[in-house]
C-alpha cells in the first residue's frame, strides 16, 4: 500500500514535469499549447533516460527527433508547392510566448498523451511512469506530426511501440 | 514558393494531405504572429489588427494578446 502511494506520488511528479517541459518547448516555438511531439521532446529530456533508450533500441539517436520534426513539416509544405526561403524563415521560428498562466491547456494531441499517461494503471501498467510510456502512448496514436517525424527517422509506430514495450518490461524487471 | 506548385490528391493520400494542412496552418500562425507583433510595435490598435485579419477585435485579442504581454516584458 505504502509502495503504491509512493509510486503514485512519483508518477504525479513525473507527469507534472512532462507537462511543464512540453509547454515550455511549445511556447518557445510560438505555439500556445503543447502537442504530442512536444511531449516526446519533454520525455527525451527526462532524467530517467527511458525515451532515449527507446530510440537507441531502434538504432536511433533521440537528439535527431527535433530535426526530423522540422523535416517532416518541410516535406508536408513542399508537397503543396510551398518551398524555399519562406519556409526556412518560418520553420520553428515562431515568436516565443511567455509561459501560460491559469489552467493547464494542451493541444488536442497533447491532451490525448496526458489523458493516457494519467490512466496508466487502468491500462494495467505496474512500473513507473517514464519516458518509455510517453513514447508508447504517442506511437499508439498512429498519426500526427510526432509519428510522421518518427517515420522520417525510418521507424513506423509499431516498431516504436515494440521498443517501448521492451524498455518498459526491462524497467519493471529492475523494480521487482 | 516554387514556380511550379505540386498538387496532392486528398482522395488518394489523405495522410499526406492532412500533414500539409497541419504544416500550412502552423506556418500561417507563425506569419500571423510575426505580423501582429510588428503591427503592435508600430502602434496599431487591436481594432486595426482585427480589421486587417478579418476577425473580431475580441477574437484577435483573445488569440494573440500573449504576444503583446511578451513584448512588454
UniProtKB/TrEMBL annotation, chain A:
<protein>
    <recommendedName>
        <fullName>Peptidase</fullName>
    </recommendedName>
</protein>
<dbReference type="InterPro" id="IPR036628">
    <property type="entry name" value="Clp_N_dom_sf"/>
</dbReference>
UniProtKB/TrEMBL annotation, chain B:
<protein>
    <recommendedName>
        <fullName>Helix-turn-helix domain-containing protein</fullName>
    </recommendedName>
</protein>
Amino acid at each position: 500500500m505504502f509502495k503504491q502511494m509512493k509510486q503514485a506520488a512519483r508518477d504525479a511528479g513525473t507527469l507534472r514535469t512532462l507537462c511543464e517541459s512540453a509547454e515550455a518547448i511549445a511556447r518557445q516555438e510560438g505555439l500556445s499549447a503543447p502537442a504530442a511531439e512536444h511531449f516526446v521532446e519533454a520525455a527525451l529530456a527526462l532524467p530517467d533516460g527511458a525515451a532515449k533508450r527507446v530510440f537507441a533500441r531502434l538504432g536511433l539517436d533521440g537528439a535527431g527527433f527535433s530535426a526530423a520534426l522540422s523535416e517532416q513539416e518541410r516535406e508536408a509544405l513542399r508537397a503543396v508547392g510551398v518551398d524555399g526561403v519562406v519556409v526556412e524563415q518560418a520553420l520553428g521560428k515562431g515568436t516565443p510566448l511567455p509561459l501560460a498562466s491559469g489552467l493547464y491547456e494542451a493541444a488536442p494531441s497533447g491532451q490525448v498523451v496526458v489523458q493516457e499517461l494519467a490512466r496508466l494503471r487502468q491500462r494495467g501498467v505496474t512500473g513507473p511512469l517514464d519516458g518509455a510510456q510517453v513514447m508508447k502512448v504517442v506511437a499508439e496514436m498512429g498519426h500526427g506530426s510526432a509519428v510522421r517525424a518518427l517515420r522520417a527517422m525510418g521507424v513506423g509506430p509499431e516498431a516504436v511501440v515494440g521498443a517501448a514495450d521492451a524498455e518498459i518490461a526491462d524497467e519493471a524487471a529492475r523494480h521487482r | 514558393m516554387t514556380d511550379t506548385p505540386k498538387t496532392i490528391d486528398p482522395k488518394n493520400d489523405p495522410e499526406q494531405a492532412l500533414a500539409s494542412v497541419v504544416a500550412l496552418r502552423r506556418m500561417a500562425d507563425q506569419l500571423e504572429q510575426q505580423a501582429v507583433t510588428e503591427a503592435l510595435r508600430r502602434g496599431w490598435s487591436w481594432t486595426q489588427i482585427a480589421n486587417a485579419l478579418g476577425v473580431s477585435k475580441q477574437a484577435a485579442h483573445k488569440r494573440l494578446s500573449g504576444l503583446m504581454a511578451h513584448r512588454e516584458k
